[in-house]
Fold Phosphate transport system permease protein PstA.
Amino acid sequence: MRISLQKWYRSGEPWVWLNAGAVAISIVMVVGLLALIAVRGMGHFWPAAIMQANYELPGTESRLVAGEEVDHEEVPIKQLKNAGVPIIEGIETMQRTLLKVGNRDLTNADFQWVVANYLTNIEYPEEVMAIERREWGNFYGYLRAVKQDGELIAGANDAELWSIFQQRIERALTIYDDIYEIEKHDIGAINSELERLRLQQRRLELDNELTPTRLADIKAQEAELQAQYKQLEKKLAKLHVSFQRDSIVVDSVDGNTTEISLAKIVRAYKPNAMSLWQKIAFYGDKVWEFVSDDPREANTEGGIFPAIFGTVMMVILMSVMVTPFGVIAAVYLREYASQGAITRTIRIAVNNLAGVPSIVYGVFGLGFFVYFLGSNIDQLFFPEALPSPTFGTPGLLWASITLALLTLPVVIVATEEGLSRIPRAVREGSLALGATKAETLWRVVLPMASPAMMTGLILAVARAAGEVAPLMLVGVVKLAPSLPLDGNYPYLHLDQKFMHLGFHIYDVGFQSPNVEAARPLVYATALLLVIVIAVLNLSAVAIRNHLREKYKSLEV
């Protein structure tokens, strides 16, 4: 038996099983983590039922509470007693429930912990509604009346009143879209042109080339733009008056009556009265809003499209920058540099750069790219904009270059590995057929090494897309006023600051004033970041596999 065990041990089979078990455990942990993130994050968009109940602590007056049940936990009696909550003798723990009660403008709190043992008469009335607002979070209560220009609009019954309410919401949302289009695009384009003319005039003044003819031409263009601006202002004023026309009268659960303008409402629904298919449709709308809309309420509501766009744009620019430099450096080290002490030292330095903390790259990017290089670029090419910096301030360009520098060692090492695996006979065969060294490199060696280059790019994207620390110094912001790519000349604004999914997670999770409201969005944004990185990597993997199949015939 002992000899058999020794033979089995020497065969290496125990190590195979040990490695297989470790891989299986790792896969289970990764899948479990992703499942937890998905459930906690994506479950936030499901229309949760609104509970209404009487809440009466011993020795206090009973009151009505209502809201979405967010969390439940068992709390030791001692903890509740220390918090001053009356306890039930004879038991060790009591359950408390976290309710999203909304109505922050009335109660100054979106969430409230209640002891479940003191809840009575629990019910889920179908008439209770949830209103998503642009400010002050959700409102939970009952619809009492709809007003137009301060006059009540009659409804034969609650169903008809609700139908009128929904129609007025659709009207308000249409007007909101028109206002958004004018403010963000039409007026934005005019402001961009006015700024361009101002800088043009300033440039001519600095160059002593501002002749009366050129000045008159600039003033004529400005006058035309100002006339267009005034027309848009009049149109906006009419839209705002129409936007503020309707309002509703609502009652909160505790009996407070308030009036809410429809200009502040995003949507209203009755979750307790919704069918399964209605809830699925609502869920789809909320998820689409999350990935396609702008954020609101300090990033705790609305969407995160600017962060998605900024992340993808930055990664694309970083990839465009890091790939050629990484490949050129690897080709030089492997194909042209003499293999001596200096080359070995350079390789050691490259490998060590891969282990430098990312925040160090951020400090370097801020000091060298922003303060030194950017300031000099402003002095040489944009003096008319000074003292306002153009490139002498953190922005998309410097963030992309900083991350390109951070991931450069990965691309160099992966490309060098690919070049080293190409048999020498392939190079010699190409040279023997009359090709020059440059032609051999360009037509034979690099195509065969292209899968390794793509491997380096995949690793670079995987690391760069999730980096946050350096970006906080070189370009990322909490809220960006516009996207770095738009319809205003020069269309791609590399000097602009941008939003990023990783920083959005940090901001919502650690800087939000409303922690409970932000928590589900942390999970949802983290899941979306994983999906974005996976899509980028899978795209690179598909290209790598295509190149591998294409040049397989060149392998010996």
